[in-house]
Amino acid sequence: MVMEMEELIIGSHVSYTNNDGLLGSVKEALSYGANTFMFYTGAPQNTIRSAIDKDLTLKAHKLMKEKGIDIKNVIVHAPYIINLANNKDLDKFNFSINFLKQELKRSEELGINKVVLHPGSHVGLGTDTGIQNIITALNEVLDSEEGPVICLETMAGKGTEVGTTFEEIKEIIDGVKYQNRVMVCLDTCHINDAGYDLNNFDKILTEFDEVIGLDKIACVHINDSKNVTASHKDRHENFGLGNIGFDNLIKVVYHDKLKGIPKILETPYISSEAGGIDRTYPPYKQEIAMIKAKKMNPQLLEEVRAYFK
Length: 309
Ligand code: FE
Ligand code: FE
Ligand code: ZN
Known about the structure:
Layout: E1 10-13, H1 21-31, E2 36-39, H2 54-67, E3 75-77, H3 90-109, E4 114-117, H4 127-141, E5 149-153, H5 166-175, E6 182-187, H6 188-194, H7 201-211, E7 217-222, E8 224-225, E9 236-237, H8 246-253, E10 263-265, E11 270-274, E12 277-281, H9 284-293, H10 300-307
Parallel strand pairs: 1-2, 1-10, 2-3, 3-4, 4-5, 5-6, 6-7, 7-10
Antiparallel strand pairs: 8-9, 11-12
The structure holds fe (iii) ion (FE) (2 copies) and zinc ion.
């Protein structure tokens, strides 16, 4: 048998519940044929969090070892209500800082080294002030060289989002004291919506390399987009069914310069009604199969619905 030089590291967003802890997340990822995954340590829209269950975490690590999931490729996503760019309300600003500190601790307890963070929205303060606030906040959160890495996500530019260009992300990184703890999460839907044309991904990577440096890419979110380049919308579409398209996304997934970097699907659940009840189903098993085969499945949505019937 010929060993593959470097294996594709692909997974998706999965759930994390207090009952099943990290073990539940690992099992869900395995059910999709994934070899990595990303999750919120609680509901993404709130900051209610429970203590990490040590026993479930140990079991999860054991299962990952057995199944070949390398924990260094597993990712936590910080809740999107954390906003480090806006300091109009100092109580809320400080709450965001403290919550992010706790989130890093929780990630450490889970053995996870990468935490994706949306830089924030300036809510009228302006991009420059937003960036300064993010820098101030990150320097409070990252108070030593040790600990999980924050992966700043490239944003679509919806509303007053900061981190919409590589230059803005670079400015944030430059202001942080412990720069070994700040990296980047490249989101294909977001960069498309922000104005980067994925018909020429090589050009995008060259630009990224010149502005930030390719060695700073810690993770890639693989999403198609419901909207055209520079739409500033941030609405994800299923793999191959949006404006970026199958071929362009496959190029990103298998790009030589992104080898060994985890790729995470955050494509939308598929809706289907059964017996008059509307439900939604995860498309990840079918999308990962399609990515591994490097061949578009025109029946993707139908197959997801059939699978869950
Ligand atoms: Fe995100
Ligand atoms: Fe994303
Ligand atoms: Zn998004």
